[in-house]
Amino acid sequence: MLAGKVALVTGSTSGIGLEVIRALAGAGANVAMHGLGDPAKLTDMCHKIASDASVKAIYAPADLKKPAEIRSMVKHTADTFGSKLDILVNNAGIQFVSPVADFPEDKWDDVIAVCLSSAFHTSKAALPYMMTGGWGRIINTGSMHALVASPYKSAYNAAKHGIAGFTKTLALEVAKNNITCNAICPGYVLTDLVKNQIDDTARVRNIPRESVINDVLLADQPTKQFVDPKDIAALVLHLCGPHSSSFTGACLSIDGECTVCPLMVSALFVH
Q1: Domain total for the chain?
Q2: In the chain, which residue ranges form alpha helices assigned H by DSSP?
Q3: Is 129 a catalytic residue?
Q4: Is 260 inside any structural domain?
């Protein structure tokens, strides 16, 4: 389905991003992996992805708090694959849990930089390649916190609400260029970020770890289960597929039906 396409996925060395990059490679796209970890081990991961899917895969490092490194990452990806970049998945994220009154300012800046500003910088750098190629798909990992808020996560809530607005704005700007931009808004997925968040939330709320899982994270998810990363990867594939051109400017909830109130449904799509 995606043979000949080139995809860059940030935060793709584990969790949601890893499932997404495997799915894109499995559909025939050449892929660039980004994320934290030992470069040698991550290069080995790329070799395995490439071998399993019979595509090309590279590791493209960057500190997402540094715009210059983001631009270099995007350029390196495009240059490697013949000045081409078709799919960008802005998935990387970090979290910090604290009341606003005690929220460290440096942690606020880091969360905003990685979860929001990096999506702007990657998208801006990728757009010229997509416009030259006459086709592009930008997909942002928005989280259910792009649609609703939770206490003690002010920076993350602000960043993800910002992602929703950025997604809709960019979709409008490139609507005539055969480029779409959407946000996927998962409920809780049991990634490393969420595992760390469980402990932080237990500390801030002074409740047991099990209570965080059952009474906080999964309280409003009717399935009472964490979202499967493979479901998110399948939605990414659909948004990149041959019948996806009318999906743009959407914040798509995938959370066991818990975050979207009736008043918000009409705002999910740009027609």
Answers
A1: 2
A2: 15-26, 39-53, 67-80, 105-112, 118-133, 154-173, 192-205, 209-211, 229-240, 262-265
A3: no
A4: no
